[in-house]
Every structure is written in structure tokens, then in C-alpha cells.
Amino acid sequence: MPTHPRRPQPEPLKTNDVRVAAAGTVVWAVALLVLLVVGLPEDETWWLWVCVTGAVIGLFACWFIPRMQRTRAEDASSAAGGTPAGELEEARLREETSATREMRAAEERGEGTTRRPPLS
């Protein structure tokens, strides 16, 4: 079975997390309005509190997410000694690629590789 070099990991998708939280908040607010307009039986009013709680958590998320992302970016930058995160990722990929080349060369020389028998 031929071995192929492993492809590098794809870049993470860049998403707008605040927009996602805001959309969820709007959905909870609309649900609250619908329940207020339609009305609920006396023993089912807890649904109103579910909607209120969802909207409040969504508002908190809209406030908190940008601060969390900023803190993570600052931590990553300081941990790298001021190197931007993109440069760190590129350096890691270069290192991973050179390690892959070294492993392939060792396999070709017959060093350090043992093949396990298939499991029965």
C-alpha cells in the first residue's frame, strides 16, 4: 500500500460569531413576542421565561464574544513573542513539512519503520 504525504490542515473558517449570537437573540425575542401575542395557558407561562433567558444570554454573548476574541489574540501574540498568529502557523507548517520529509527519507533508507501485521 503506497504511502502519501499528509496534506496540511486547512485554515479554520473565519466566522462572525457576534452575528451568530445576534441572530439567536433575535430568534428568542421574536419567539417571546409571538408567545405574548398568541397567549399561553396559565400553567405554560414558563415558556415566556425561556425566551427571556435566551434573549438575555444572547445579549451577553454579543457583549462578551468580541472581548474574548481580543483577549485570545493578545495572548497568542504575547505567547509567540510578538509574532503574529499567521506567521506562527506558517512556521509550524514548514516544520511539519520538514518533519514529514525526514520521515519519508528514513522510510526509504529502511530506518526506524516497522510494519505491524494486520489485526485479525
UniProtKB/TrEMBL annotation:
Stretches that traverse the bilayer: 20-40, 46-65
Family matches, as InterPro entries: DUF2530
Keyword set includes Phosphoprotein: no
UniProt keywords, alphabetically: Membrane, Transmembrane, Transmembrane helix
Keyword Glycosyltransferase in annotation: no
Pfam families per the UniProt record, alphabetical: DUF2530
Basic and acidic residues composition-biased segments: 89-114
Chain spans, region Disordered: 73-120
Domain of life the protein comes from: Bacteria
Name of the protein this chain belongs to: DUF2530 domain-containing protein
Organism for this UniProt entry: Actinocorallia aurantiaca
